[in-house]
Amino acid sequence: MRRSPIPPRLFVIFARSAHEAVIFRRGPARWYHVIRWNTRDDTFHSGAWFKGRIYPEKCDLSPDGELLLYFVHQANRVRTDYTDAWTAISRNPWLTAIGLWPQGTTYGGGGRFTDNRSAIIRGCRTAHPDHPGAGISITLGDVPHHASSKEVEGSEWSGRDQDGRLVFTLNGLLMHRSDAGDDICLADFNDYTPDPQAAPPSADRPLSALRPSIKRRRKKQGP
């Protein structure tokens, strides 16, 4: 008798200042898929596939939703200068590293953005020479992990989007629970199979400098 496929597990992180989110889809087995979600119009854009392990709770999204901070383990890299675990920053929803910090252990790792171009990471501060993280300010520190809000009993993950919608995941489905208690399916991620694709050229583009904020001096009032 053929067994039913195990549904994928979904974990979501929302951007703090934009209607953007990232979805980490786990399955089948050791495959992960990264999906960008526009929470304003509920559109979804497939990104990287990764065979190994992504630790979603240690990941983060920049406030504008453009950059992804992630922590991964990939055993077949153990004898390389990447080591078998690393923290990196890329363009959402790809894993092409702009900055990469080898960790060499799954203890620690990951981090949080403090603004669109600054982050606190747990672990080694020395960046990989091929991925120096130009344009990103990095400090070391301990920051909290992301976690489910546990607002929906029986769900795998739950949380609130930028407009306060209650969203949860269960059996490969991304769901919204309305104020009336109705459950509405926003997306079904069950029928995905691993299909690694080359990242677009924009994923490897260096970060442009942020426009500096201009503080205008007030004119002195007359006597």
UniProtKB/TrEMBL annotation:
Protein name: Oligogalacturonide lyase
Chain segments carrying region Disordered: 190-223
Organism superkingdom: Bacteria
Residue stretches of biased makeup (Basic residues): 213-223
